[in-house]
Amino acid sequence: MESWSIFCYNERMNKHQQYMRWLHVESTNNQNNKAISRTYKNMSGADELIFLPQSYWEYVDWLEARGDIDFADWVIHCEQNPHLDTPISHLLMYWLWLDECGRWLNCLPTHTTTIPGGFSFWKIEYGNRVWTVGCGRL
To answer: Which end of the chain is more exposed for a tag (fewer CB within 10 A), N or C?
Structure first.
């Protein structure tokens, strides 16, 4: 959990940079974060192995079952719009994480009651009343 502090509190980096830094630490140091591969077609029609942790694949499956995304389109989009030297699997993880955070923030359905790592709520207290951004699901 210590690596999340790097992610949450480094204000000089934007969200993407913070997430990518955290992802590098987690993917190299956390044995519980083993990647599972699935094959998708890339722009040229060749097979592309996408490596994501099981929890991310569960989120992809949930989104696709709802008809919210076509992950194959996401793979091609990320290939067409690379970010520096970021591996395509890491870029896809970032977009999935950002999508899930947006769902929490905007009170949209989520596949789990677990808050995405690195996501935090704004909380305002006034007297005995408390307001939170993110529907106050906690």
So the answer is: N
